[in-house]
Design brief:
Blueprint (H helix, E strand, L loop, with lengths): L13 H4 L4 H24 L2 H9 L17 H9 L5 E8 L3 H10 L5 E5 L8 E4 L8 E4 L12 E8 L2 H17 L2 E2 L3 H4 L7 E2 L1 H11 L16 H4 L6 E8 L1
Parallel strand pairs: 6-7
Antiparallel strand pairs: 1-2, 1-5, 3-4, 5-8
InterPro entries: Papain-like_cys_pep_sf
Organism: Loigolactobacillus binensis
Protein name: Permuted papain-like amidase YaeF/Yiix C92 family enzyme
């Protein structure tokens, strides 16, 4: 349905253009304040030291070949398979304050810019696609909640999604396959929304693909377009249960 509304439009006079009332200033003060805050955030995010740290890390990444292999240990998978008795999978949405997430937030305009999966409520099996903390190559890696504390107001939201034992095992099996085959962080895909190889992904792309694999996806969107906050904002059918929040 297309609705066209035609109205007459007249260009404002020079006098009108040069005049602004105090009432208008009062009306717009919140918008002005928000814009100034945005400029301040942009300045902080694009500070020289942050940009240097981000670009210095680029050589560790690859958007065309697998560079991470076997970072998840046999002990990790022992814990993962032990969690099959729990009929839930856990989505972890975090506001970490890392240089990469702060730059990503400039494009998403969202506070939370990282998504992870865990097979247990205590987050002993939390994983995602990340930079590897300069310990492992960028790609599929285990995570520690303590490592999310990169700024004073960092926070983590934990949700659970009901699943069958078979669905949960299917995801764990797939994670084990990726760990064996190899992976890489899809840094270029943040812009191009494209993966050159199946196991080259970014965090929210990985989480969405794992849910879709087990038919646990509850919204429809190309995996390359999924943002971390989509898992919360697009939960129209209330599939997620909020568990708890971690503040540092």
């Amino acid at each position: 349905m297309i609705i066209t509304k035609r109205t007459d439009f007249y260009l404002p006079s020079i006098k009108e253009l040069a005049t602004i009332s105090f009432a208008q200033l009062q009306t717009d003060q919140q918008t002005i304040a928000h814009s100034l805050q945005g400029i301040s955030k942009l300045k902080q995010t694009l500070a020289t030291d942050k940009l240097k740290a981000t670009f210095a890390d680029l050589h560790r990444h690859s958007s065309t070949k697998y560079i991470n292999n076997g970072s998840l240990t046999a002990d990790y998978f022992a814990h993962a398979y032990a969690s099959l008795a729990d009929p839930h999978i856990y989505l972890v949405i975090s506001n970490t304050g890392s240089n990469a997430s702060e730059i990503i937030s400039l494009f998403t305009q969202k506070q939370y810019n990282h998504a992870s999966l865990s097979f247990d409520a205590e987050l002993k099996t939390i994983i995602s696609y990340n930079g590897g903390e300069k310990v492992y190559p960028p790609g599929l890696n285990a995570e520690m909640v303590e490592a999310f504390h990169k700024k004073a107001d960092a926070s983590v939201l934990i949700y659970r999604l009901a699943t069958t034992r078979a669905q949960k095992q299917q995801i764990i099996d797939k994670v084990q396959e990726i760990n064996t085959t190899g992976s890489a962080y899809n840094l270029l895909g943040l812009v191009t929304k494209h993966s050159y190889r199946p196991n080259i992904m970014f965090c929210s792309q990985f989480v969405y693909r794992m849910l879709k694999l087990a038919q646990l996806d509850y919204f429809d969107k190309p995996a390359g377009d999924v943002r971390p906050t989509d898992f919360i904002e697009l939960d129209y059918y209330k599939k997620l249960d909020f568990c708890y929040e971690i503040k540092f």
